[in-house]
């Protein structure tokens, strides 16, 4: 029936129908857009980190120029120009995509991971020794740069989490061992920080890592007393009852 319909139209209006058939556009849904910014910038940064910060065109120009000078063989002047154009033309839409993916968490630890590790590896954050006022100021500054992704409530909860954890780390002798012995093999650390176990489970995990380190990473061998201190820290910071 459809073939007969088109045959009938061609007989009556040959010029119009043939022109329409050959000028028809491919539906937009079948097209794929490839951005140079994704290819070039994702080698060193997550794309979320690239787009999440609100910057002026001049600020973007300066940042791209710095990146180009660092690795001129990777980003040419023409690449830099295209990347700047792609960012300025698509920034709003890309930010909206990122915000749409944002999840809500009741657990402050998970909220911290979702919001902060977009731009920073978790081991870099946890290595810092800060007091509560420092963390409050730092998180507020991060929010000012990514206000669409980190809400005011998020910032308060994240600062609270980091302050409480900092207090435990400052008081606990196992904190430096945790950074030196554990985070060195688990960068950027998100997966490790996600885990929660009771004392028996942490003892088993740390013992397993002890045995692995003896064979694979002798430079970070964990001694018996060190293992006990690390277990105590993990029970306090990532025990089953820890929030």
Describe, in short, the structure shown.
The protein is mostly helical and 243 residues long.
Polypeptide structure, described:
With 243 residues, the chain is an all-alpha fold. The protein has two domains: 66 residues, no CATH class; 131 residues, no CATH class. It contains 14 helices and no strands. α1 packs across α2. The N terminus is likely disordered.
Instruction: Report the portion of residues in β strands.
Output: under 5%
Helical residue percent? 55-70%
The shape, in one word, is globular
Counting structural domains, the number is 2
Radius of gyration: 27 Å
Structural class: mainly alpha
Q: Which blocks of ≥5 consecutive residues have pLDDT under 50?
A: 1-32
User: What is the makeup of the main sheet?
Assistant: none
Helix tally?
A: 14
Oligomerization? single chain
Mean pLDDT: 78
Order of helices and strands: HHHHHHHHHHHHHH
What is the CA–CA distance across the termini? 67 Å
Find the count of extended strands (DSSP E, 2+ residues). 0
Task: Give the arrangement of secondary structure elements.
Blueprint: H1 2-12, H2 14-23, H3 36-41, H4 47-52, H5 57-70, H6 77-101, H7 108-116, H8 122-126, H9 132-145, H10 152-171, H11 174-183, H12 190-194, H13 199-216, H14 224-238
Helix pairs in contact: 1-2, 5-6, 7-10, 9-10, 11-14, 13-14
List keywords for this structure.
globular, 69% helix, 2 domains, 0% strand, single chain, mainly alpha, disordered N terminus, 243 residues
